[in-house]
Amino acid sequence: MMRVGTGGKFVAVVRRSLLWSSPGNGRGPALNVQRRTVITGQIPTSPTGGDAPASSTPGWELRRGHHLHSSVGLHTSFPTACGRTFNPQLYYEVLQACCDQQWLQAIQRELRNDKEWMDTLRREGGVAKAMNALTESTHHDDEFMMKLRDTLKTDKKMSLTLCAIQESYERIRNKRDIHETQVAADGGNDPYAAMRRKQQGEFGNKYPSF
After folding, report:
1. C-alpha 55, offset from chain centre
2. Angle between the 141-152 and 128-136 helix axes, to the nearest 10 degrees?
3. Chain segment 43-73, per-residue pLDDT in tens
């Protein structure tokens, strides 16, 4: 997780504009596209930003001071209660990717293709409150990962949520890698290069306030 350290306070709330809107007119969740900006490591997990349609909690929060750890046994993939596999190493990649608004929006769009997760989300809501409670009950990354590991082995909804987010991120990353490989095979001719340069120029213009 992203942390300040022992006793550190949460510093970022998932912005409503980047979270799921309530499904309407049979069209499913909607996105409010904004200019690319750096955000503080947030994950879209619920239809309106909380665990229930009327919730005022805009998702679960993550702490600053992100650190990668290599504790033995804490970063090995393992099966979860939902039947999918959770990869702690990939989880850290997802946290980093979600600091980029365009990655966050891309993951959110890709999540729509996960029918099992979408059905569960509409039927049971998100896991923001449970994630906040889990995060607040720990003091450092290794303790959090140990508790998360135990929780994902028994909590089907939470494990489905995190695994669905991971898999969505991985699909996007694989598409990107395939595209870059094809560009290299074509002698470096990238039809999207101009658009990407423009996006990179905008990236970082707006930083979150802590």
Report:
1. 20
2. 140
3. 555 444 444 444 444 455 554 444 444 455 5
CA 187 from chain centre, in angstroms, equals: 34
Using the Cα atoms of residue 20, residue 23, residue 28 and residue 32 in order, give the sign of their dihedral: negative
Position 204, amino acid: G
Tell me if 41 sits within 8 A of 3, measured CB to CB: no
Neighbour count for residue 120 (Cβ, 10 Å)? 19
**pLDDT tens-place string over residues 106-156:** 888 999 999 999 999 999 988 888 888 888 888 877 888 889 999 999 999
CB atoms within 10 A of CB 99: 18
- Count Cβ neighbours within 10 Å for each residue of 71-93 and write b for 16 or more, e otherwise: eeebbeeeebbbebebbbebbbe
Q: What is the DSSP letter of 5?
A: S
pTM summary value = 0.59
Residues in the chain: 210
